[in-house]
Design goal:
Number of helices: 11
CATH superfamily of the largest domain: Type I PLP-dependent aspartate aminotransferase-like (Major domain)
Structural class: alpha/beta
Number of strands: 11
Helix content: 25-40%
Order of helices and strands: HHEHEHEHEHEEEHHHEEHEEH
Distance between the termini: 34 Å
CATH architecture of the largest domain: 3-Layer(aba) Sandwich
Shape: globular
Strand content: 15-25%
């Protein structure tokens, strides 16, 4: 976490007796400057997950397209909203779980909403900007809301389509500040929407969902360019080390554009349990649709932590 963010949170503790700004005006102003977009198109939230649940409830789509494997909250958000039909699009392991734009567009036929996680979770795979725009253009023609979840895009910021939202009445972009900025415990995210949708979303949105500490921390994080630059440098360096080391000992390492990797091993190894005995936690991916217990997701961390994980892998294989 940024040292400047920590210092700002300490200062903000003196104001905990006050209610937070329910409209997050200062944060929206900072985000509009940061992205060069209109503040009226921004809706801040208790993590981007709040918006994932809000949109099906507020926009009431009949059929929603969801690829798999991907972030499981998309499907859950649709299932808790009565009457929504989920249409699935399978990402093939023989294609490294990549999204094929033409096939995705075909799958969007007769859909009212589609989710696209970019980079995808848990695969870490990025769909390049030009392909996302191709899909969003097709969504516009079809009258289908395309929700691009860019929770991990800060690791490849040039591939974001956030500035393209004003040009497409069907394009929605979600962003999270819990990944790149490590503000997970404060729960802060936001979405950029076609202006015509904001009032409709606010009608169904709970009040007071973004606390004052989260708002202050987010503003400070966006101003801390040194932290962002150092984070990108560190992640790139550690990914080179991590990926090179994994390929020497691992059965399957999927290419990743995020700060984590999807790995493939044998089902009977139960590697997540063995690593837990060593005090190392990894993500068992068996509850991701399309994956099983032979897949795990591992995060890229500090050199010390990465070396410990590589050593643990080496001792097993």
């Amino acid at each position: 976490v940024s040292k400047k963010v920590k210092a700002e949170i300490k200062k903000a503790l003196n104001n905990l007796h006050n209610y937070p700004d329910p409209d997050t005006e200062k944060l929206k102003k900072k985000l509009s400057q940061y992205h060069d977009i209109a503040p009226e198109t921004i809706l801040c939230s208790n993590g981007s997950t709040e918006l994932i649940y809000l949109m099906p409830r507020a926009l009431k789509p009949g059929t929603v397209l969801i690829p798999f494997p991907t972030f499981s909250e998309y499907e859950r958000a649709c299932k808790v909203n009565y009457g929504l039909r989920v249409k699935s699009y399978e990402l093939k392991k023989e294609n490294n779980f990549e999204i094929m734009p033409e096939k995705f567009i075909d799958a969007m036929q007769n859909c009212d909403m589609a989710f696209l996680c970019n980079p995808n979770n848990p695969t870490g795979k990025l769909l390049e900007k030009n392909f996302v725009l191709e899909i969003s253009g097709a969504a516009k023609e079809l009258g289908c809301f395309l929700i691009v979840d860019e929770a991990f895009i800060d690791f490849r910021p040039q591939e974001s389509v956030i500035k393209n939202v004003p040009d497409n009445p069907c394009l929605i972009v979600l962003r999270s500040m819990t990944k790149f900025y490590a503000l997970t415990g404060l729960r802060i995210g936001y979405g950029v929407f076609p202006a015509r949708l904001i009032d409709k979303l606010k009608e169904s949105k709970e009040p007071w969902t973004v606390n004052s500490l989260a708002q202050r921390a987010a503003i400070t994080a966006l101003e801390d360019n040194d932290y962002a630059d150092e984070t990108l440098r560190l992640i790139r360096s550690e990914k080179d080390f991590f990926e090179g080391s994994l390929k020497k000992i691992w059965i399957g390492v999927y290419p990743s554009d995020a700060n984590f990797y999807l790995l493939k091993t044998k089902k009977d190894i139960k590697i997540d349990l063995k690593l837990r005995e060593e005090g190392i936690l990894v993500r068992n991916c068996s509850n991701f649709r399309g994956l099983d217990s032979s897949y795990i997701r591992v995060a890229v961390k500090s050199r010390k932590e990465n070396k410990a994980l590589i050593k643990a892998f080496g001792d097993m294989f």
